[in-house]
Amino acid sequence: MLLESRAVYEKYSAPLGIGWMVNPAFHYGPSVDGYEYSRWGTYHRADHLGLGVDRTDSGTGYVRQYHEPNASMYNDPGKCPQELLLFFHHLPYTFLLPSGKTLIQHIYDSHFEGAQAVLDMQKAWDEMEGEVDAEVFLRVKDRFERQRINAFEWRDQVNSYFYRKSGIPDEAGREIF
What we know:
The protein is mainly alpha-helical. Helices cover about 45% and strands about 0% of the residues. It has one domain: Alpha-d-glucuronidase, C-terminal Domain (Alpha-Beta Complex). It has helices spanning about 1-15, 70-75, 85-90, 105-125, 135-165; strands spanning about 50, 90. The protein is globular. The two termini are about 30 Å apart.
């Protein structure tokens, strides 16, 4: 469970290097625009056409701080590692990823998958009752419940935000507010 936890958190909070969409000051919980309009605001730059920060040669030029071949790799959305895609590129919601999914569908899917993965970990932990110290079991069970609440909050706020920005519905027909 511990080995999976970082990837699960990333799925429901910041897929594709989208950025740090947390509440300012205490950095806990989702706030999609929390830092977006502050002096630190360089996190998603979403508009009605797409999202991500253009840090390429034609954008901020940030990519030039890297040596070759990394600079060229990060500069090209077709070669940029997927986990850094929106950190380096502002792309349309309809941009096709190697998976065949659009950018917006990947965002929807990853947030739903991350929330489901928390439920799966929660269930796996519940099956450990009686196998670990009772106090430890209850403490971890409580933390999983808090994570479940957090994952659902992230899923709902982020998906709703990008649905309202893009106007593109979830292909799976899941509820997005």
